Amino acid sequence: MRPDPGTVKPAERLDDVRMDEVELTTPVGSADIGRLKLGDVVYISGVLYTAREGVYRKVVEQGVDFPASVRALTNVNFHCSPAATGRPDGTYAVEAVTATASFRFGKSMSRWFERSGAKVVVGKAGLTELAYREWFVPHGAVYLTTVGYGMGAAYGRCITRVLDVHWLEALGIAQALWVLEVERLGPFLVEGDREGRSLFALANREINLRLEEVYRGLPPYAMGRFGETTSRTDEIV
Amino acid sequence: MSRPIPEKLVEDTARELMARAAIDIPADYRDGVRKARECERNRIARFVLAEMERNWDIATADRRPMCADTGLPRYYVRAGNEAVIEGGFVALERALRKATADATASIPLRPNRVHPLTRRDHDNNVGVHAPEVTYAFEPRADWIDITAVHKGGLFGTDYRMLFPTDGVAGIRRFFVDTLVEFGKRGLACQPAIVGLGLGGSKDTCVRLGKEAACLRVVGSRNPEPAVAALEEELTALGNYVGIGAMGFAGTSLVVATHIEVAYTHTGGLPVGMHSFCLSSRRATARIHSDGRVEFRADPMWFTDYYRREGIE
């Protein structure tokens, strides 16, 4: 039995993360999104689509409409490019899917949510809590991170069909918008919840506690570099 | 005079290497990850590593790429001094480029390669200086060795010009800095085989660091005792940092550290570092002059001749 989320306190330490298993079907409803807790192990069934910088450039910067047919089917955006190839009969084979690092798309996300209706973003490595609060929380969106990374084969096996592909010619295989039918695609981990908390932020706080000790005996460099952070608790994303 | 190695044989072998590298995780690295999982105290990091092992099983069973980001496909070629290739090295390069384009469609690999400014994409991983081919030679041999490597390209790599006054402490500092930078959130897709290139010029240390990461098997040691001792010390230091798989607080950050050196400027200590990730993809074959092809797990790239110190 899953506990009522109202009674479970948000994890404050990695050891408190329960890793409850959750099955989501698309489009993912608001109640399901609200129940997701940091570190829950998520499997998705239904339809999702790939979109990354190429698609964002079109939809967010150039103002091209997000395909209405896709919006009607799903609200799950996977930050990835498939290892895909065309078959002689004109259909496509997608053998493996692996996410790409999502922090690079942060500044596009707010406008993207408005134009695409996406509520669930699946990607690699998440964004900062600041980014979630500024760009995700106002749209009721959450972030799931892939596991590994590089579970391309295991994820690829969960793709049952390529339903459609948009902008293949303009953007190429890696950047096109692929619409994929999936069955129990996962596991993913809930990294950014609806309140904007981050699982990686929990992890980083624990890592940072130790860094002073790790750096003992490691002197500053003879020559510095411009643009460099000097705080070990800073992140580079 | 050796019999010439046919261009077609080079092409067929290279295409097979592209597939094996993309699909089958090398056993030496897999053993290293299993040990890292068994030592890992963090529950989420352990879960991640168990899932990765399951992913490798699926890749091999289904003949699918283990990771859809099939990196930047490239080749390392060692030619025996007596080896002859039908059509010469121009034919060999044509064969390697053709095999890359064909493998991109047949495996499939993700067509990652684009023009850096226009982002032009041939959808086949071939372009200007793509795939890279790195050459080395071996005396008294009439075979050619080809190793295919698919290495991710974005995170976990850095370069820094250190100086003799920085010394070993500076190398340790750079090593830890790079691990912490890219280890958080698991950007480096750790636990990794870390390769360090020490010395040479800027480009030499970056090249050697990559070769150390990608072309030495886990469990190998640099033959120079002082270098081997530093390899062990850095592996222990890396796993003491406190970062595990995917950046969860833990101990599974470095499977092995491989260091290669090159004689450098008397005033400098340049260092390049690379992380070969949870999809450490490499495969090697030797093509003999009689047409036999032997596939093997160990690239055997760092031969005594390759590391020679004197004139001969």
What does this structure look like?
The complex is a heterodimer of chains A (about 240) and B (about 300). Chain A has 8 helices and 9 strands. By secondary structure, chain A is α/β, with parallel strands linked by helices. A 5-stranded mixed beta barrel of chain A has the order 2-3-6-7-9. In chain A, helix 5 links the parallel strand 6 (about 120-125) and strand 7. Chain A is globular, with a radius of gyration of 19 Å. The model of chain A has no long low-confidence stretch (mean pLDDT about 90). By secondary structure, chain B is α+β, with helices and mostly antiparallel strands. Chain B folds into 2 domains: about 5-20 and about 65-150 and about 280-295, 2-Layer Sandwich (Dihydrodipicolinate Reductase, domain 2), CATH 3.30.360; about 155-280, no CATH class. Chain B has helices spanning about 5-25, 25-40, 45-60, 90-105, 165-185, 200-215, 225-240; strands spanning about 70-80, 130-140, 145-150, 160, 190-200, 255-260, 270-275, 280-285, 295. In chain B, helix 1 (about 5-25) runs parallel beside helix 4 (about 90-105) and helix 2 (about 25-40) packs antiparallel against helix 3 (about 45-60). Chain B is globular, with a radius of gyration of 19 Å. Chain B starts with 6 loop residues before the first helix and ends in a 16-residue tail after the last strand. Classes of the chains: A alpha/beta (about 240), B alpha+beta (about 300). At the A-B interface, strand 4, strand 5, helix 6, helix 7 and helix 8 of A face helix 3, helix 4, strand 4 and helix 5 of B.
